[in-house]
Design brief:
This protein is of the alpha/beta class and 254 residues long. The protein has one domain: Alanine racemase (TIM Barrel). The longest helix is centred in the first third of the chain and has 23 residues. Bound molecules: pyridoxal-5'-phosphate. The site of pyridoxal-5'-phosphate has 14 residues, from strand 9 and helix 9.
Length: 254
């Protein structure tokens, strides 16, 4: 086994162990939590090594980069590809065609386009709704920072729940960057409370997924109810080139 594979395998296993510990601390079943290994901006060799190390779910931020990687690794089954980054409307078709789950549905316009493209392929695309629980200008997602204003979100959500080729499964957030994992806790709690609120408003819809937590804070996210954590650097190391850049090692080194 290459040293890259064994180091990823070790990091992956220790992340799974910490997820299980955090689940037990909060009296949860560790099997409710899925680990998405984020390989955005990592070369294809790293993605291959993650697959060889036993990773089951890969997360990518840029549709084109993700699809290029899928295509160069085609034929190796058993992994699921998730889109976790902001998707521009003009990239909607790539997502509708290729990804198993979109974590980051953040606008009505994108929802309508995804619905149309998924319908054209006779598929139903599972999605999570992204909320900006910290109210930062720079973050995607519906602003859910003020709980007293949650009522204003309901028309958009109702509209999305009615789109026949999308299947909402829960919520996702990316909290403000803190200096301590504990800084994220109140934001994760807010997302969970929002989920509970929506489950009362729309009881027939599926709200079971909470995608929250990265390398910086995933144990806290698990304690607060995460069912999907998105961990990159803690497993596959620092990103090798700037977001959206080339995926071939030769291009990186050129
Ligand atoms: C990059 C990214 C992650 C992973 O971040 P790490 O710090 O590498 O664990 C998780 N979620 C989203 C939306 C990201 O863009």
């Amino acid at each position: 086994m290459s040293s890259l594979v064994s180091s990823i395998r070790e990091n992956y296993q220790s992340t799974l162990d910490q997820i299980a510990d955090a689940a037990r601390r909060s009296s949860r079943d560790p099997n409710e939590i899925r680990l998405v290994v984020v390989t955005k901006s990592q070369p294809i060799e790293v993605v291959q090594a993650a697959m060889d190390a036993g990773v089951r779910i890969l997360g990518e931020n840029y549709p084109e980069e993700g699809v290029r990687k899928m295509q160069s690794l085609a034929g190796q089954s058993g992994v699921e590809w998730h889109m976790i980054g902001h998707v521009q409307s003009r990239k909607a078709r790539l997502v509708a065609d290729h990804f198993a789950l979109l974590h980051s549905l953040d606008s009505l316009k994108l929802a309508q386009r995804l619905d149309r493209f998924a319908a054209e392929r006779n598929r139903v695309l599972p999605v999570l709704l992204e909320f900006n629980v910290g109210g930062e200008e720079s973050k995607s997602g519906w602003d859910a920072s003020a709980e007293e204003a949650w009522g204003a979100l309901l028309p958009d959500i109702l509209f999305i729940l009615d789109l026949p080729a999308l299947r909402v499964q829960g919520l996702m957030t990316m909290p403000p960057l803190g200096t301590d994992p504990e800084d994220s806790r109140r934001f994760f709690r807010r997302l969970r409370r929002l989920r509970d609120h929506l489950a009362v408003q729309f009881p027939r819809a599926d709200w079971h997924e909470l995608s929250m937590g990265t390398s910086a804070d995933y144990p806290v996210a698990v304690e607060e109810g995460a069912t999907l954590v998105r961990v990159g650097t803690a497993i596959v190391g620092a990103r090798k080139y700037k977001p959206g850049g080339p995926v071939d090692k030769s291009e990186v080194e050129a």
